Amino acid sequence: MNFIIDALSWACLMLGCFLGISGAIGIFRFDEFYSRAHAASVTDTLCVLFIISGLVLQSGFNLVTVKMIFIVVLLWLTSPVASHALIRSAYQTGLKPKLAITRKESSKRTQS
Amino acid sequence: MPYRYLLIIGLSIFWLLLSGYWTNPLILGLGAASVALSTWIAMRIEKKYAFKDKGVSILIRQHTFWPWLLLEIVKSNIAVLKCIWMPKTNPTSPIIRQLKMQPQSNIARTLYANAITLTPGTVSIEVRDEEILVYALLEDAMKDLEDGEMGRRVHKLEGGN
């Protein structure tokens, strides 16, 4: 039983590490500000969830578990606000995103 | 009025879980004082910006929304990961579009915009009265939003059909 829990928690931790690293790589690999913010949001969501659930499996069920669940909930509630503020300020100061499909083309497509 | 009691109960549970010392009277007293202080500050805010929405019913219905949102987050994470690791086979197609919002009350709109930003691949840029400006990394993610599954679910949370 102990072995199974250990294996599960290690799998969760490794998956979380992989997601965190790929978020970091995505920040460097994408070519402009807006898409880089998306790469960072991979780290914000599932990476945090997997790492914390791995730690929860390690610690067993006690008050520390509850605190770690609080960390996930608070991060998931606040990180969208932060990235929204970042992107909104970039958009309002006039940084134009590189679009594959411009707004005019997309409105034409929906009309036809 | 009920929000005051809800806030006090919630803050007390939060404090008790974070502290872990449930027998020491000094620490319990400090906790009660901090709960009272934050409730007082919240009441002062509410005098100016009254909270009129149906917050309690939304809180009760949350359990139908979060499992679905978790599934969506996993799906969109996989899509963004493909773009990161295999940029040649999965090129990004950034797109900005203005969408109609189904949710009506302020709190449901906040929840909707937050849920859009929480899923990787889509970010809400601006929220106006009825409309929301969304930036998506992939065209498929934008199509999913246009179909309005998420909007319908948030609208159900606030008691719509």
Report on the structure:
The complex is a heterodimer of chains A (112) and B (161). Chain A has 112 residues and is mostly helical. Chain A has helices spanning 2-29, 33-59, 63-92, 103-111. The termini of chain A are far apart. With 161 residues, chain B is mostly helical. Chain B has two domains: 2-48; 58-157, no CATH class. Chain B has seven helices and three strands, in the order ααααβαββαα. Chain B has helices at 2-19, 25-48, 55-60, 62-85, 106-118, 139-147, 149-157; strands at residues 95-100, 122-127, 131-136. Chain B starts with a helix and ends with a helix. The mean pLDDT of chain B is 83. Chains A and B meet through helix 1, helix 2 and helix 3 of A and helix 1, helix 4, strand 1, helix 5 and strand 2 of B.
Could you give a quick summary of the protein structure above?
Chain A has 112 residues and is mostly helical. Chain A has helices at residues 2-29, 33-59, 63-92, 103-111. Chain B has seven helices and three strands.
Which of globular, elongated, flat, extended, rod-shaped describes the shape of chain A? elongated
What is the number of E strands of chain A?
Answer: 0
The sequence of SSEs of chain A as H and E is HHHH
**Helix amount of chain B:** 55-70%
Outline the secondary-structure elements.
The complex is a heterodimer of chains A (112) and B (161).
Chain A: H1 2-29, H2 33-59, H3 63-92, H4 103-111
Chain B: H1 2-19, H2 25-48, H3 55-60, H4 62-85, E1 95-100, H5 106-118, E2 122-127, E3 131-136, H6 139-147, H7 149-157
Antiparallel strand pairs in B: 1-3, 2-3
Helix pairs in contact in B: 1-2, 4-7, 5-7
Using brief descriptors, characterize the structure shown.
heterodimer, A: 112 residues, mainly alpha, B: 161 residues, three-stranded antiparallel beta sheet, 3 strands, 64% helix
